[in-house]
């Protein structure tokens, strides 16, 4: 990302067009910085509130000499708003130390590696809700890790291959429905 602080002086003077240019450069990365909260928080509402607050604090903001100082303020505002929303909703306990480490990594320009822990919890909760043959088939396929063909897995479970595939399709459908109920955008997650 280019240093968006080139717009800072004009934004501080109330230039809405300069803020629009800043916003065009900052919004995708700002939105991405809140991705891990998307399962439990209305990220779009938080993003709008964060951008309004950035506009309000910009006249008082003093650049620290590092690139994108106003953007970093925006990330902190957005993440703090997400944490506030989580606390307000009392959805799940928040590991504040982990959030602080993530904020420090973000400010240092280092994106945390690894899967989204909130998404992983939602997927596990949905898997636990599966029952019967769909659950057995999904577990068998995951345990095999792609090393064994479906015909072998079906035989091990005492099913015909077609029945195995039908149960796997049911398991996928049930998982997708559960994830959608938890506001997981499968298209975005799989892209």
UniProtKB/TrEMBL annotation:
Gene Ontology BP annotations: DNA-templated transcription initiation
Any GO MF annotation of the entry: sigma factor activity
Keyword Transcription regulation: yes
Transmembrane segments: none
Record keywords: DNA-binding, Sigma factor, Transcription, Transcription regulation
Protein name per its UniProtKB record: RNA polymerase sigma-70 region 2 domain-containing protein
InterPro entries: RNA_pol_sigma-70-like, RNA_pol_sigma_r2
PANTHER family per UniProt: RNA POLYMERASE ECF-TYPE SIGMA FACTO (PTHR43133), RNA POLYMERASE SIGMA FACTOR HI_1459-RELATED (PTHR43133:SF8)
